Amino acid sequence: MSSDEKSIRAHREVIWHLTCGHCHYYWTYPTMNIDEDISKKSFHCPLCGQNSKTVVDDNLNAL
Ligand SMILES: [Zn+2]
User: Fold this and answer.
1) Which domain does 24 fall in, by range?
2) Do the Cβ atoms of 30 and 13 come closer than 8 Å?
3) CA 2 to ligand 1 centroid distance, Å
4) b/e 24-41 (16+ beta carbons within 10 angstroms → b)
5) For residue 41, what are the contacts with CB-CB under 8 A and spacing of at least 6?
6) Domain membership flag for residue 55
7) Structural domain count of the chain
8) Which residues are found with C-beta within 5 Å of the ion, ligand 1?
9) Lower Cβ count inside 10 Å, N or C end of the chain?
């Protein structure tokens, strides 16, 4: 067994925090694809079922 096989293997995960604009339900969307452009995706809200496009908001104070 080489030293590489004994190493701790690490993989980067991105966790998007999503808030429904209709009912304000909050959930997360984890992905291993760090290059994914989430602004090109739409989601169905798990609570109210509304399908909406995603807008990236970098302002954490808006939460
Ligand atoms: Zn909703």
Assistant:
1) 11-43
2) yes
3) 50
4) eeeeeeeeeeeeeebeee
5) 53, 54
6) no
7) 1
8) 20, 22-23, 25, 45, 47-48
9) N
- Flag whether 53 is in a domain: no
Residue 58, pLDDT score = 86
What's the CA-to-centroid distance between 53 and ligand 1, angstroms? 12
Ligand 1 centre from 54 Cα, in Å? 13
Instruction: Determine, yes or no, domain membership for 22.
Output: yes
pLDDT 10s digits, 12-56: 999 999 999 999 999 999 999 999 999 999 999 999 999 999 999
Which residue is listed with tokens 């798990």?
46
Question: Is 50 contained in some domain?
Answer: no
Q: Residues in the chain, how many?
A: 63
The reply to whether the predicted model has a pTM over 0.85 is no
